[in-house]
Amino acid sequence: MSWRTIDRKTVTEEQLGPALSEAALERIRAFFPRYPTRRAAILPALHIAQDALGYISLRAMRQIADLLEIPPSAVADVVTFYSHFWTRPRGRKTIVLCRSLTCELMGGRQVQEALERRLGIGEHETTPDGQWSFMTEECLAACEHAPCMLINEKLHKRVTVEDLERILNDPDNDRLDVPRSTLYDAPRDSCQQQKTP
């Protein structure tokens, strides 16, 4: 996949995209006590931005750079390195299909072809209605359940072409069966308690 070049002199307000709210910036600041430098909080900051906006806008990248006291290019480098960060709006639900050898051998390629036909999009694209985005990942670390895929954060195991319609039509296909980690979603007070003297 290639990334578009950004000419900072000609970027428009619309191309900058939405800004992070003060609440999102405060969540990022809550991570500072956990790390030796502000720069080290870049991954949590990017996850917070993507959770808040649905993707990481150029304006959000600038805000994060200012907050972490690093160049905007350093933020853009990290965003474009990891495939799970999006630089344009994603669908309400993102499907991530594993493309590891195990998943390939167990029918992953056929599942991918069927998904692309069903959704009418290719990899790293979003349906026109904004409902679905699709991407593949090298490994989802669930080889014993191949082929597997995530919808948002929920893992679907041993997926077959015949399962796709049922999975896609299930309104709870992205709901986790267990609560998320309190480490990532920890309130600011608990962050302060974890700080060592």
Report helical residue fraction: 25-40%
Shape: globular
Termini gap:
45 Å
Main sheet?
Answer: 5 strands, mixed
Strand tally: 5
Question: How many structural domains are formed by the residues?
Answer: 2
CATH topology of the largest domain: Glutaredoxin
Structural class: alpha+beta
Order of helices and strands: HHHHHEHHEEEEHH
Determine the number of helices (DSSP H or I, runs of at least 4 residues). 9
* CATH A-level architecture of the largest domain: 3-Layer(aba) Sandwich
CATH C-level of the largest domain: Alpha Beta
Strand content: 5-15%
Uncertain spans: 188-197
Mean pLDDT: 87
What is the spatial order of strands in the main beta sheet? 2-3-1-4-5
Cα Rg: 19 Å
Query: For the record, what is the CATH homologous superfamily label of the largest domain?
Result: Glutaredoxin
Summarize the structure in words.
The chain is an alpha+beta fold. The protein folds into two domains: 13-81, no CATH class; 93-169, Glutaredoxin, CATH 3.40.30. Helix content is 38%, strand content 10%. The chain is built from nine helices and five strands, in the order αααααβααββββαα. It has a five-stranded mixed sheet, with helices on one face. Helix 2 (22-29) packs antiparallel against helix 3 (42-53). The longest helix is centred in the N-terminal third of the chain and has 12 residues, at 42-53. The protein is globular, with a radius of gyration of 19 Å. Mean pLDDT is 87; it is low at 188-197.
